[in-house]
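Table S2 (text version). Query chain:
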Amino acid sequence: MKQSLLLIACIVFAMSCKNKQSITIKKAVRDPDFEKADSLFSKDNDSAFFYFNKVATNSKDSLLIAKAYNYMAAIQSYAGDNFGAQESLLNSLKSLDDRNPKHHSCLASDYNELGLTSWNLKNYDAAITYYDASERFNQNPDYKLIGANNKALIYQSQGKYDQAIELYNEVIAKHEQTAIQIRSAKKEYARALANLSFTKWLQNPSYNAEPGFFKALRIRDAEVDEWGLNSSYAHFTDYYASKNPDLALAYATKMYNIAKKIKSPDDQIDALQKLIKLSPPAATRKYFIIYQSLSDSLQTARNTAKNQFALIRYEAEKNKTENIKLQKDNNTKKYQIVTRELLLLVAGLILVLGSVAATLWFRKRKQKMELEAESALRESQLKTSKRVHDVVANGLYRVMTEIENKPAIDKEGLLDKIEELYEKSRDISYEKPTIGTQPFDQTISELLTSFSTEHTKVLIAGNTTELWETVTESMCYEIEHILQELMVNMKKHSSASDVAVRFERKNSRINIYYTDNGIGLTEDVQHKNGLRNTGNRIASIHGEITFDTKVDKGLKIQIAFPNP
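Corresponding structure-token output:
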């Protein structure tokens, strides 16, 4: 009964897909195979399937192909071939474009039938998803109500009675708002009313479902809705099975008789199962024999239909493959002729292009080598300039500071320092950074105190041997010249009277805090070579330097670099 009820709605969708496009087919497409299949639909489904398959195999019209697959799926579903129907529906969807409004009707039909086949296969979640997709593309309000009723049946099958009841109430309310004058609307109203009453009874066996059942029965009887009567008799049979077995048997008999009248083998089998359970022992054997015979015949017929559908599709694919092979052979011969003619042309083009490419490559290679040489020269010049600035210029400035501020000049010591600067300047481009033999904290102390004068006091804090134990030689070299650069700039530009340099290790980093009370760091000083070199040195040890020039007076600088 479940499959038969849904199949009616499914066929309605399929017919809507056809009717909405019928004018276009007659005027623009006119496919004789499709028209032949359409005329045989529901009369001789095997022949209809054959012609629909011809359309799906040979047509160039994507919409016509989609509709052909849709009809084929309806035929397969009716024959019980749910997996075959799903395959046809998926092929139909491949030919449709959800951005094209002309395709929406067929999309709605495809998804509706996928919902039906998923329900038949007890894949309820997938069925809900497909019915939702069908509703998205369906613009007909009446068909939307059919889809809602179908979804409610799925929820009922899952035992989700609250969701099913909510949907049934929505369907009934919309039907009542439109006063239900159309015959098809009356049938759908009766269907929703009967299903609502049945669902409420399933949820609560003490619920009185008779008023809803009888109201739906009266509408179906008045409209001569034999499929609907079949459903009502099934509901009455289940409802009275435990309450009034004799009455349930009477309704099961009515269901069996009308199922035979509408030629629905599935409903006949359902009715026979009810009769076997409710009938007295003498009649049970008779009904069981009929049930077994009908079930075997139905299964045989459906297996035959499945095989027939598969054979039809196989033959169509075989013919299509043979035609493609013939076309391929002809195309291969043409291709061989054209290929021979193109080979000489391609060979000539390759020769010309190869010559041009080689010329361009050698020219580009030459330019690249020239650029690399120029870059290497510039880098060497910059390196030499930096070394001159660090070793000679800052060294001389440090010596000048000592001469200027020491009342007694150590002539021998001064000559030694000048000689050291001379030796370093001779081969400055080859000199490697070296650190003296004395401890680095002592080197830093000497460096910083050398800038101390009677007008400028230099205070040092945290400069201990332990601080520098894990610092590499190359990093010490960079730190020494960074501090030297800061002190030189202080001497030249700041006019500071107090300078403080504090060292600390914190969280695997070494921090150096420089503070003076001078005039601060002006914009023109920030961009000179010395501070640019300082920035480069900080970057080379993966550190960072922060200038705080917003203090009221003076300059604050923080240098930080990692040292685990």
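Notes on Table S2: The CA atoms of residues 331 and 379 lie 63 Å apart. Strands lie at 457-461, 498-506, 509-516, 544-548, 555-562.
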